[in-house]
Design brief:
433 residues, Rossmann fold, GMP Synthetase, Chain A, domain 3, 11 helices
């Protein structure tokens, strides 16, 4: 069994808790002393850094929400001077400005080590060739994995996104053994390779997939077609980026690195759930310098699993994500909220406030989003040209807000089902494939 940092990956529970408390105290002091937002929140809760005497005291600290990041755009939550921030990343927000996160030199070293742990955990090393087929911009997935691959000494192929035929050509020419991309794009690569009859020419053995939900059925398809082991990767830019949690070779839950992140899984009342019960994942960073975050409500639903794993690692383990606490959808790696769509719909007088979101996968195994809307009675002129213009207008408005191409289907008023309870606004058919 190979470990990147065996001291921390296999640390005894008592020693780990002692380390967590030391780091938690430092994080709370840093946020209190250097981030006005946290100083205000802590004072409102009647808490000072010296009140943190045990890990149980964490529950007395206030939560941090996604809205708090947007409200403090761009650098309001940074705990170090800008002169110490060597890189920023940003994620798409629910609306308006993105959420911006920063990293010191030490933060980048920590991040690289976390990815190195993950890659080593799934059997990768300096003899591997790793193709990183994700966006290299402000999205954390590209550079996050890139430096982790370099850290373990493997060869990185920074292929980025697009040009599927070229991606497959690189895999063959460079002898690529490991791939990182979204699972939906991996399916498209797999199907294309099969259509081109070149699967036998590939040297792939490991796939690292994340940034969007994917089913056990998708895993089976990828492993069967590409002859690989497919591993789930979990991360979020607000806490670090990719590398927060990862599956080991057992493929039975994700190891979440407890020496860098304190994990809570909470019920609807904010109480810690028992092992095996589902709840919302709440994370506190323990080592981040530029952008420490306290009790961040991720919105992701998971289960706490037994920490003992036959791989020998003793960190907290969580199940693969079971859904969202809010109504956020992830489409091609982009966060989409039905509330965003609703905001667009209600501003267009020619359509009613009723809508339905339909998610599918196309023949290329890429996510497609269709918004079905009802037109008002007075909007129907009988001219097809007018309907086409209305359809394009709604599509353009949605794309400007969601930052993703959206298909719009115009429907007759009253055709979208009404219910007494919560309406079925989203029909997700992606995992049926």
């Amino acid at each position: 069994m190979k470990y990147w940092q065996p001291k921390y990956e296999t640390m005894g529970h008592a020693e780990l808790k002692e380390l967590q408390l030391t780091r938690l105290k430092k994080t709370v002091a840093a946020t209190y002393n250097n981030v006005p937002f946290y100083a205000r929140r802590f004072k409102e809760a009647g808490i000072r850094p010296e009140d943190i005497r045990s890990l149980d005291d964490l529950k007395n600290l206030p939560f941090t929400y996604k809205a708090d990041l947007r409200d403090n755009y761009p650098f309001g939550l940074f705990a170090v001077p800008k002169s110490e921030v060597v890189r920023i990343h940003a994620s798409s927000g629910t609306s308006g400005k993105p959420t911006v996160v920063g990293y010191t030199k030490n933060d980048l070293e920590t991040w690289s080590d976390l990815l190195a742990r993950n890659l080593t955990m799934v059997g990768l090393g300096k003899d591997d060739v790793f193709q990183n087929a994700v966006n290299y911009g402000l999205f954390t997935g590209g550079l996050g994995f890139h430096y982790g691959v370099e850290k373990i000494g493997a060869m990185i192929v920074p292929s980025g996104t697009g040009s599927t035929t070229r991606q497959l050509e690189m895999m063959i020419d460079f002898g690529v053994t490991a791939l990182h991309c979204t699972p939906s794009y991996a399916l498209y690569l797999a199907e294309t390779a099969r259509e081109m009859d070149i699967v036998d020419k590939l040297s792939l053995r490991v796939g690292c997939f994340g940034a969007e939900p994917w089913s056990s059925n998708t895993r089976k398809q990828l492993e069967k077609i590409l002859n690989i082991k497919a591993y789930d990767s979990y991360g979020l830019s607000e806490v670090m980026g990719p590398g927060v949690a990862f599956e080991c070779e057992e493929q039975d839950g994700l190891h979440l690195w407890s020496d860098h992140f304190f994990v809570e899984v909470l019920d609807e009342n904010g109480e810690q759930v028992s092992e095996g019960e589902k709840g919302e994942l709440v994370l506190t960073s323990l080592t981040k310098e530029a952008f420490p975050i306290v009790r961040y409500r991720t919105g992701d639903i998971t289960r706490l699993l037994e920490s003992e794993c036959s791989c020998g690692r003793t960190t907290v383990r969580i199940s693969r994500l079971l859904g969202r606490a809010d109504d956020m959808l992830i489409v091609r790696g982009i966060n989409v909220f039905p509330s965003q769509i609703e905001d667009v719909v209600v501003k267009i007088p020619e359509i009613t406030e009723h809508f339905q979101v339909i998610l599918d996968r196309n023949k290329k195994m890429l996510d497609e989003i269709t918004v079905k809307v009802e037109i008002t009675e007075n909007a129907f002129t009988g001219e097809l040209r007018d309907l086409a213009e209305l359809q394009k207008h709604v599509e353009d408005e949605l794309q400007s807000v969601l930052n993703i191409r959206t298909n719009v289907e115009l429907a007759e008023k009253g055709s979208i089902p009404r219910t007494e309870g919560k309406s079925k606004k989203v029909i997700d058919r992606r995992n049926a494939l």
